Every structure is written in structure tokens, then in C-alpha cells.
Amino acid sequence: MDVTTAADLNLLSEFLAFQQHESLPSVDCIVLCGSSILHCAETIFSALRSHPVTSTLVICGGIGHSTPFLYAAIAKNPRYADLRDAIKGLPEASVLDVILARDFGKAAVEEAGCRIVVETNSANCGANAIETRKILESLDIPMPRSMLIVQDPTMSLRTHASFHKTYADVPCPPLFTSYPTFVPNLREEGGELVWDVHGVDPAGLWDIERFVDLVLGEIPRLRDDDEGYGPRGKGFIVHVDIPGEVEEAWRRMSNRFERRR
To answer: Which of 2, 197, 235, 256 is deepest in the core (most CB within 10 A)?
Structure first.
């Protein structure tokens, strides 16, 4: 490996994370999408425990192909490992809700005025958006003026585009912004790629091989062509502009790494 490899992967990572806030803002609704990266949930839960920044928290996520990675993350985390048997078989949102209740004072958060909604049907980014809208409407929660989307940084941009697609028929949709809580960065050390993320325990991140697979697999999904998820392809998301330098980095990294996903 060399510094060019780390630089290219970091460019892709920053693009996909789509971090629009440096810190957690006050919004009408926060949507926390289930994932194996527990730092995302911990950041939101810690903030809500300290002060109310939203009137509605939607924790969304059913059971999908990535759910075993969440179970594994729980099992290897010293803080939550004792929950590994209790959470097996639960939807991702329910797993995070268990953590919120036991470790972050869910009752106190609710008493402070935050309504917590647990959505357990969605199994992908598009469904996160669709099922969030469904459950908010079914509970007669007024249309939020602002909605913060908190997602695994490798899928943050796609999830943001999915929410725009889902609310495209609404005359005055929420203002959607993205807050993955951190941007994954790598550096080269001793001929290997290692994590270089301030304030995030590397033990709670993806293994490097999986991260590379996720990042390289994401760019084709975002494209607006016959094979992509944009309007000219599968129609799952709104159009996303992919800068030329991002496409060039993706091509270099695709040639360097064997695609596994």
C-alpha cells in the first residue's frame, strides 16, 4: 500500500459520508438508521441524554443482510457484550432501543420531551426512508420542518438521496441533512492501511477489507445510469452528482482491489 491508496479511499469515504454538520444540531426529527457502527447510535444517545435537541427520534432498521454484523459488534463490545444473547434475532432498531433503555436513560430522554419511535420493517436505505415516513404519518406526527439522517458513513449519501426520493411528492418536504457523526479516514503505516479517526475506537469500526468493499460497492449504486439507483436506472434515489475526481479515485481503487461486493 502507499499514501495514494489511502488518499483515494479517504476521498471516496468523505464523499459517501456526506457530513453536513460538525456537531449535532437542533432539528424537528432525527432518524437514526441501524448499523454495526455503534459509535453513530452512541453519539446520538449521549447527546439526547445531555439535552433535548429534537422532539422526535426515529430508530429504524429491521433484519437485513448486514444485521449479523450488528450482532457481532454487540458481542465484541465490552460495554454491551452481556446483551449478545438477549438481542439475537431482534431487528436492528430494537437492538439499539435496548441499548438506549439500558445504558443511556431512555425514560429520562422521553420525559425531557423527545418522542421515541422504533421502526422495525426496513432492511435497506430506501426502506429506511419509506418506512420512516409511513410510521410518522401513522402516528399523526406533523410533517417535520427539518430531519437529520444519521447513518453508517459508507451509506450516508445514498440514504440522504433515498429520503429526498421518498418525500418528492410533498409540496413542502422536510429539510434533510446528513450527520454520520464521523468521517472514516485511513493512513498507511508499515505498508498496511490503518484507521486514522480521532475520537472513535478503531475496534468498533469495520475491518479494512470490508470497508474497502463497501466503499467501492457504493459508487456504482449512486450513479444515474442503467445499472445505478438513480432516476435513469432503478429509480431508488434522486439524482446524485458524482465529481470526476471521485470517479477517478474509484477507478484506481477498483483496479487495485479485487471487488468482493
So the answer is: 197
